[in-house]
């Protein structure tokens, strides 16, 4: 069994991105992170993204709003950021507090700055197969891992577990774009085990700790684990029972150290792309 380690994929991506930044002729792209409230998950994601952006020599600014901010006031503040020509890309941490109509904000975001693909325009472009659209970063991170490993998707049987708009559905579209034959499983899939076992490439994105066991995985299959969960002991784990699956799978991605370590870099890749687009 082989592992695809996120750090190796990230290193290769970084090398390309450094060249892309240099090609901007001295312009430094600016990422803006929008956070409402003090949720620990948001703060830790924000810190990680900011650290990576700054380490790559990019600009990163955080705007933090009170958890009690009204919808109207947030729209006003968000639009200032959205319309600021110095802002190249926006990462808005979600979910937003209940009083804010998140759907309205998603519709407001400038598609050219929507590097995390929260707005309907970018999502529609991904579904239309436009290759220069900003796809949801996790879905694209899965594609980057497969690309790094030189895996050709053409004609391959792929099963994706999970049909969310941030991972499962857009990933299915990206894979169809590479001519894979894609099946999506969800909580009501009838022959779940059989559908997983039929796959040459199995992607787990359900958010259920260690739910993918060896009986779900064909011998030699490629297993990409997107899940981020805590096991009974409170340790970080994926959707795949790694210890069990590694005995028969061909390739498995670890958690931590797999897809998650590529996701933020994809966001920064989009930021550089957005800056390049703006300067055209
Ligand atoms: P979600 O809850 O929005 O969607 C989960 C999907 O999985 C649903 O479509 C549901 O039908 C399906 N599902 C759940 N339990 C199932 C089961 N027992 N059998 C079959 N299908 C089942 O979750 P999400 O936002 O798509 O995230 C999925 C996982 O990926 C989570 O663990 C999340 O933490 C992780 N995630 C990781 C990254 C990353 O960077 N690696 C980014 C986003 C999400």
Automatic annotation (TrEMBL):
The keyword Lipid biosynthesis does not apply. GO terms for molecular function: methenyltetrahydrofolate cyclohydrolase activity; methylenetetrahydrofolate dehydrogenase (NADP+) activity. NADP(+) binds at residues 162-164, 228. One of its GO terms (biological process) is tetrahydrofolate interconversion. It catalyses: (6R)-5,10-methenyltetrahydrofolate + H2O = (6R)-10-formyltetrahydrofolate + H(+); (6R)-5,10-methylene-5,6,7,8-tetrahydrofolate + NADP(+) = (6R)-5,10-methenyltetrahydrofolate + NADPH. Pathway: One-carbon metabolism; tetrahydrofolate interconversion. Keywords: Amino-acid biosynthesis, Histidine biosynthesis, Hydrolase, Methionine biosynthesis, Multifunctional enzyme, NADP, One-carbon metabolism, Oxidoreductase, Purine biosynthesis. One of its GO terms (cellular component) is cytosol. Its EC number is 1.5.1.5, 3.5.4.9. It holds the Pfam family THF_DHG_CYH_C. Residues 4-116 form the Tetrahydrofolate dehydrogenase/cyclohydrolase catalytic domain. Catalyzes the oxidation of 5,10-methylenetetrahydrofolate to 5,10-methenyltetrahydrofolate and then the hydrolysis of 5,10-methenyltetrahydrofolate to 10-formyltetrahydrofolate. HAMAP family: THF_DHG_CYH. This is Bifunctional protein FolD. It comes from Hespellia stercorisuis DSM 15480. The lineage of its organism: Bacteria, Bacillati, Bacillota, Clostridia, Lachnospirales. The gene is folD.
């Amino acid at each position: 069994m082989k592992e695809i380690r996120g750090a190796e994929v990230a290193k290769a991506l970084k090398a390309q991105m450094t060249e892309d930044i240099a090609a901007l002729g001295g312009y430094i792209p600016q990422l803006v992170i929008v956070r409402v409230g003090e949720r620990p998950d948001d703060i830790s994601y924000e810190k990680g993204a900011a650290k990576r952006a700054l380490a790559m020599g990019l600009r990163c600014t955080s705007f933090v709003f009170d958890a009690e901010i009204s919808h109207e006031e947030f729209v006003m503040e968000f639009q200032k950021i959205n319309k600021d020509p110095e802002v190249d890309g926006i990462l808005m941490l979600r979910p937003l507090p209940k009083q804010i109509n998140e759907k309205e904000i998603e519709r407001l975001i400038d598609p050219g700055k929507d590097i995390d693909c929260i707005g309907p325009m970018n999502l529609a472009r991904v579904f239309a197969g436009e290759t220069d659209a900003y796809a949801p970063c996790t879905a694209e991170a899965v594609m980057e891992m497969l690309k790094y490993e030189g895996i050709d998707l053409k004609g391959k049987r792929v099963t994706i577990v999970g049909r969310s708009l941030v991972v499962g559905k857009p990933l299915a579209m990206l894979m169809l774009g590479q001519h894979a034959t894609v099946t999506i499983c969800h909580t009501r899939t009838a022959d779940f085990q059989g559908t997983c076992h039929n796959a040459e490439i199995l992607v787990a994105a359900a958010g259920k700790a260690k739910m993918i066991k060896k009986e779900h995985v064909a011998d030699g299959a490629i297993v990409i684990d997107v899940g981020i969960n805590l096991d009974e002991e409170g340790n970080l784990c994926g959707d795949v029972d790694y210890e069990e699956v590694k005995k028969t799978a061909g390739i498995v991605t670890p958690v931590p150290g797999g897809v998650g370590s590529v996701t933020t870099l994809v966001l920064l890749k989009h930021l550089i792309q957005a800056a390049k687009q703006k300067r055209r």
